[in-house]
Amino acid sequence: MKRRNLILSGLGLTGALVVGWGVMPPRSRLGKPDNMLLTEGDVALNGWIKIAKDGSVVLAMHRSDMGQGIHNALAMLVAEELDMPLAKVRLEQAGHDAIYGNVAMFVGTLPFHPLKSEGKEKPMMVKTGEWVVSKVARELGVNATGGSSSVKDAWEHLRTAAATAKASLFLSAADQWKVPAKELMVKEGVVSHASGKSAHYGELAKGAAGQTPANVVLKDRKDWRLIGQATPRADVPAKTNGTAVFGIDVRLPNMLFASIVQVPQMGGSLTSIDTKDALAMPGVVKCIQLSSAAGSAPGFAVIAKTTWHAQQAAQKVKAEWAQRKEGAIDTQRIATELQDKLKTESGFTFYETGDVVKAEAGAARVIQAQYTAPYLAHATMEPMNCTAQFKDGQLEIWAPTQVPGLARAAAAKVAGVSEDKVKVHVTLLGGGFGRRLEVDVVVQATQLAMAADGAPVQLVWTREQDMTHDYYRPMHVAQLSAAVNAQGQVESLQIKSAGDAISPRWMSRVLPALSGPVDAPDKTTAEGLFDLPYGFAHQRMSHVSTKMGVPIGFWRSVGHSHNAFFSESFIDELAIESKQDPVAFRLALLQDAPRYAAVLKLAAEKAKWGSALPAGHARGVALHESFGSIVAQVAEVSMQGGMPRVHRVVCAIDCGTVVNPGTVAQQVESSVNFALTAALFGKIDIQAGVVQQSNFTNYPLVSMAQSPVVETWIVPSTHSPEGVGEPAVPPLAPAVANAIYQLTGQRHRALPLKA
Questions:
Q1: Which run of H or of E encompasses 497?
Q2: E strand or H helix at 81
Q3: Residue 692 near residue 745 (C-beta atoms within 8 A)
Q4: Could you tell me if 698 and 681 are in contact, meaning their C-beta atoms sit under 8 angstroms apart?
Q5: Residue 192: CA atoms inside 13 Å, Cβ hemisphere, count?
Q6: What is the DSSP annotation of 284-320?
Q7: 747 φ, ψ to 5°?
């Protein structure tokens, strides 16, 4: 299959497109006022904006906050267009209308090379692909917080909703005061006229309802007063004083608590269960067997008056388990199988230019290397949890989820009720990183609620359950080769990787309506390999998709997280083999990618690349684009006790227009530490079907004492906003590995980085 035949590969929408959609006009994302929660005294002006009596604004918040500051950023967009203080924008959880779906996230799954998809004149194939997928995504209306897409997706329609609301309020004032709307002004949410008349938004809201302003114009960039400013986050006080409500903080009258035990063997089954001793324990209410749904593992749960009672009783349950029919899963065997598939299968070619075979055949020498990356857990600070109550035919759920609509659908299916009988309350998320794109814990809590006789039940996994029943970042391997001519110039780059594809596995669990019998090529397998900016004359990037039986899912920066390690480490190898400075080598290959070159130059400049360092220290560099943002990092590293010690990471980022530079810096710092944990320690081993890592004792995280100084430098840009939550993850591992090579002369081609 050729890449040009694959417009919708990342979506896996086989058989799901309706031809009629192609001729339908684009649907507005403005929405209707009745999309908003009806509250006495408030007036909804569209599906996003509601005006309160006191003149404050209520925003329908459709994205989940897991610490990335999205609630603050989206509120800033609204406050900007409405010309009002940020403090006067309140949030209300959005409903389940399709206007709240994430279009940008789905468009981001298209496997187009970034150098072809950016700019004013996109190729027809790119424009067509983006148009079709946008249309499909708009119809599907999947509300998901992921893919570093929240600001990108909201950028136009949320500002338009606010600007439309403001225009409606102006028309209301013009009608009341009998003056032209163009003569009105607004400051801090107060509309005024030169005649001396004035009113705040709350006083104009009733008259604004039903107004249909024409030719709504967004504020000019030069008039922005909030966007682009480092604005304090509104969630800091609540998270500081303990009033912020995460999933595990939910408390309801007469609430019960549950502890779960799931089959320890991956893909295994429960063969027998004896609950007699457990049921005799103090505080125990029920013990029920849990069936598998939405990818969840089978097992059992104890419902009790407290979590402690439930956990103690769960240990008294006598259960017997069986391995999967196909045999026990083992990571050593998987590693061997992936190596074999690299040798024996051609895979799907995501990108090809020139003639790699001819270039290598005529080369003075061919440089080759093989890289590997292990399975990784998410290790969120807040363990998996969900609270559910089934009463009078209604199901109510409190969950820290990235996919409230999909959680609602899955819960309804398990409960055997229609979706309109299910209400989902989205709490704050204590970390997500892609793990909370899954709905397994929601369907488990729903099963418990169905057995609790109307009482609410809170299910909280232990850390051990969380670590051993994750949806892991997949293990991948890659074979890289480059042809060098007689003059020492690198003429070609060929990369073939192998590993499981995430998107089809996730869809089969969470979005089964779009899951087909055959997996389409998945962009996540090859992102960070097929889309490199370097100007090698001959390139071919392909991937061999596998199904190893390990439950896999989206992990912060997804395929980029390991593919950047493969590609940027190998680029460094080529620089060394060519006897060139690693920065200069990259810049010479970026003549047709000026944005990339600018980011790399900025990072090198701020890190003082080439200047003297303390004895025993060295620098490493890496450059990578993901989720529309270009990031370059320079890591300063030493070796201490046989282990790398990262002292400083200088990060330059071009993420388009920045809403809040303070949040960008925070996300870069978060990403660096998240990625450093994976680079130094991250590894999941499976033996006899059982995950060997179970807690932070054998799956450690980078401590505060081990955290480097992180400097963030933002490239000014007038492009639309791009992703921020993930793009600073991928370059960290190769930057550190490249620094280690400078220190030791040892090239690390496997993660985690060991002495």
A1: strand 492-500
A2: helix 70-82
A3: no
A4: no
A5: 9
A6: EEEEEEE---TTPPPEEEEEESSHHHHHHHHTT-EEE
A7: -95, 120
Q: What does the block give as tokens for 513?
A: 């309506």
DSSP state of 295: T
Q: Confirm if 427 and 239 have CB atoms less than 8 A apart.
A: no
Residue 461's nearest CA partner among 266, 248, 250 is 248
Name residues whose C-beta falls within 8 Å of residue 113's C-beta, 6 or more positions apart in sequence. Answer: 351, 530, 531
Tokens 């390690």 sit at which residue? 565
Return d(Cα 411, Cα 390) in angstroms, integer: 11
Nearest to 62 by CA among 94, 30, 40, 39: 94
Residues whose CB is less than 8 angstroms from the CB of residue 314 and which lie 6 or more positions away in sequence, other chains included = 259, 260, 261, 278, 300, 301, 302
Reply yes or no on whether the pLDDT at 16 is more than 80: no
Q: Please tell me the distance from the alpha carbon of residue 718 to that of residue 740, in angstroms, as a whole number.
A: 37
Position 417 scores a pLDDT of: 98
Whole-angstrom distance, CA of residue 620 vs CA of residue 647: 12
- What structural domains does the chain harbor? 31-102+141-241 (3.30.365.10), 247-324+384-460 (3.30.365.10), 331-376+472-744 (3.30.365.10)
Residue 235, token pair as written in the block:
């969630």
Q: Rounded distance, CA 144 to CA 100, Å?
A: 9
Distance between CA atoms of residues 375 and 388, nearest Å: 31
- From residue 167, alpha-carbon distances to 59, 214, 223, 595 in Å are 17, 9, 17, 37
Q: For residue range 543-566, list pLDDT tens digits in order.
A: 999 999 999 999 999 999 999 999
The pair of structure tokens assigned to 708 is: 């480097």
How many angstroms separate the CA atoms of 356 and 320, rounded?
54
Distance, CA of 226 to CA of 679 (rounded, Å)? 37
pTM above threshold 0.85: yes
Q: Which of 749, 338, 349, 365 is nearest to 570 (CA)?
A: 749
- Angle (CA) 726-732-734 rounded to 5° is 130
| pLDDT number for residue 18 | 37
The distance from CA 206 to its chain's CA centroid, rounded to whole angstroms, is: 39
Question: What does DSSP say about strands 709-714 and 198-200: parallel, antiparallel, or unpaired?
Answer: unpaired
- pLDDT for the residue 708: 98
The DSSP secondary-structure symbol of 490 reads B
Give the integer Cα–Cα distance in Å for 630 and 655: 7
For β-strands 457-460 and 256-262, DSSP reports them as parallel
The C-alpha atoms of residue 151 and residue 154 are separated, in whole angstroms, by 5
pLDDT score of 2 = 42
Strands (E) located in 299-364: 299-304, 318-322, 348-353
* Other residues' Cβ atoms within 10 Å of the Cβ of residue 343: 10
Which helix (DSSP H) or strand (DSSP E) does residue 344 occupy?
helix 331-344
